[in-house]
Write a structure and sequence with these properties.
2 helices; single chain; 0% strand
Length: 117
């Protein structure tokens, strides 16, 4: 009899912690995706910045300087586009996380709150 009681308690505890486990896994997956995005952004922006620094070291006369300054507009355009794309990706990731978290919460409530007849 005690074994059945302990088995029942263990089963109920497992079920009670399942939503937290799902939310934890969702949080880890979300953090992983966000980290990948941040690393990608850092890599892209670093490459753009280093390319501009290299271009600056090649300036040796007025014509080179004018070309370098003109290239700055392209640099800022590329940076702006990258940041805009990444901001959209972050927003999409946030929306996906929120939707999944709400789904888990809804399932949890439905499992523990008796349905009205």
């Amino acid at each position: 009899m005690n074994d059945k009681i302990f088995a029942d308690v263990a089963e109920k505890a497992k079920a009670a912690f399942e939503p937290a486990k799902k939310l934890g896994a969702l949080g880890v997956a979300n953090a992983e995706e966000l980290t990948k995005l941040q690393v990608s952004t850092l890599d892209s922006l670093s490459k753009l910045g280093i390319a501009r620094m290299k271009a600056a070291t090649q300036v040796s006369d007025v014509a080179d300087l004018q070309a370098f300054v003109a290239g700055q507009a392209e640099f800022f355009k590329a940076v702006g586009e990258k940041l805009s794309t990444d901001a959209k990706a972050i927003a999409k990731l946030s929306e996906k996380y929120a939707a999944e978290a709400q789904k888990i919460a809804k399932e949890s409530v439905e499992a523990y709150v008796p349905k009205a007849n």
